[in-house]
Description:
Elements: E1 8-16, E2 19-23, E3 29-34, E4 46-51, E5 57-62, E6 69-71, E7 79-82, E8 87-93, H1 100-112, E9 116-122, H2 129-145, E10 149-151, H3 160-164, E11 171-175, H4 182-189, E12 215-220, E13 223-227, H5 272-278, H6 284-298
Parallel strand pairs: 3-5, 8-9, 8-11, 9-10, 11-13
Antiparallel strand pairs: 1-2, 1-4, 2-3, 4-5, 6-7, 12-13
The structure holds guanosine-5'-triphosphate, magnesium ion (MG) and zinc ion.
Amino acid sequence: MHESTKQKTARVISHFGNEILIQGQQNLRIRAKVKQGLPALVCGDTVVWITNELNEAIAIEVLPRHGLLTRSTQHAAEKLIAANVDIAFIVVSHKPAFKTGLLDRYIAACELAEIQISIVFNKIDTIEQNKLEDFKTTFKIYQDIGYPVHYISAKKMIGIDSFKQTIQNKTGVLVGQSGVGKSSILRALFPEAKPKIGEMSEKTNKGKHTTTYSELYRLDANSYLIDSPGIREFGLNIDDPELIVRGFKEFTDYLGHCQFRDCKHTNEPKCAIKQAVKENKISQQRWESYQTILASLME
Ligand SMILES: Nc1nc2c(ncn2[C@@H]2O[C@H](COP(=O)(O)OP(=O)(O)OP(=O)(O)O)[C@@H](O)[C@H]2O)c(=O)[nH]1
Ligand SMILES: [Mg+2]
Ligand SMILES: [Zn+2]
């Protein structure tokens, strides 16, 4: 076979319109075109590519995906965030202010995409001890559900090693609000990576949307980490509201025990989920998040 038509595989580092940046086995970053008719590609995809007679790299096939993280926006029903994701690091902090609803949406999206979840509380170097204790109480709910919570400081390199191991031989993605420190965490884990790190707005205490597109970084031969842009609203990409319960893992044990088979677990009588909330077996806060998401999808 002529060298130029030899097929190789590569991971998609990032995606711009009709062009992608790919990384093959030799760690080289190559700009490639995408053959017409391929589905929309996203950071993390694995593609088969060739070099044509003009010496251009062309992606000709996308390999089957797992762990496809998506969301919906006002403009698009489905916006791809990353593909082939094994584990999501949902990054939260006290600065910008923590939002339970957003965390629960991320969790639901990852559960539905069968992506493992890890919560990362960043910037512990700038929080008062008693406030940190309050957060630890809040996050106990998530630990009880089975989600590990890491308390770290990317800036002061505290707690970085404890979750570094969880990414070995996996593809991870960093998600969360703008300014929580996703790119800073990437740099702490992988100093050779030089992602842009933003300022926080002093006026609003919010991030400035420094990272504008998702990008894949190779940590070692089999471990990858994707840095993604922070977002304000995370719309769940679900067309069937009945699926939402699958995004709330701790509800699972109670499903099928409600009086009505089509119970939505909102205000129906003899609802096993509501009963579990009453008995403190399911957190009131999580149940409220569930209802907010359900209401937003029924609109
Ligand atoms: N004190 C402190 N500041 C941090 C820490 N991690 C990040 N920061 C700061 O927080 C700001 C935002 O950090 P980024 O890493 O750009 O945040 P991001 O989540 O990537 O933000 P977007 O790309 O906009 O989504 C920067 O000023 C960082 O220096 C930390 O552990 N401690
Ligand atoms: Mg960033
Ligand atoms: Zn019910």
